[in-house]
Amino acid sequence: MTDINLHDAEITGIEHDEASQELILKATHPSGEKYQIVFLTVEWWELCSFGVQNVLFSIAPFDKHSLTKGIIVDQDIPDQYAKMVSEGDYVFFIIKASIGLEGWVLAAEMRIDPV
Going by C-beta distance under 8 Å and a sequence separation of 6 or more, which residues neighbour residue 71? Predict the structure, then answer.
């Protein structure tokens, strides 16, 4: 994963490619640089509040070592998805917003691609 500070990046679009199991968030960094946040081998995702303005606070990854019961309960993660993370094949990504789009993604990995 490229080391890019996601704080205050604006999400300008969402694309889901079911065939390739990718979820893509199109983003613009406060510096003006455009990039895509790509989630690979996506099993499930829940996003809400995508509106006119969507500014990221952070994307926090939780793997089998860091996903706690508290996070599972707080995020209302179904048991089968928590099990997939605990088995080590998937990572749970929590998308926190300053405003707008937020939610979570269950995927094998995430990468950031400059556009």
Answer: 62, 77, 92, 94
What pLDDT does 5 receive?
Answer: 79
Do 93 and 104 contact (CB within 8 A), yes or no?
A: yes
Domains in the chain: boundaries: 10-114
CB 34 within 8 A of CB 28: yes
For residue range 58-73, list pLDDT tens digits in order.
999 999 999 999 999 9
Per-residue confidence (pLDDT) for residue 66, from 0 to 100: 95
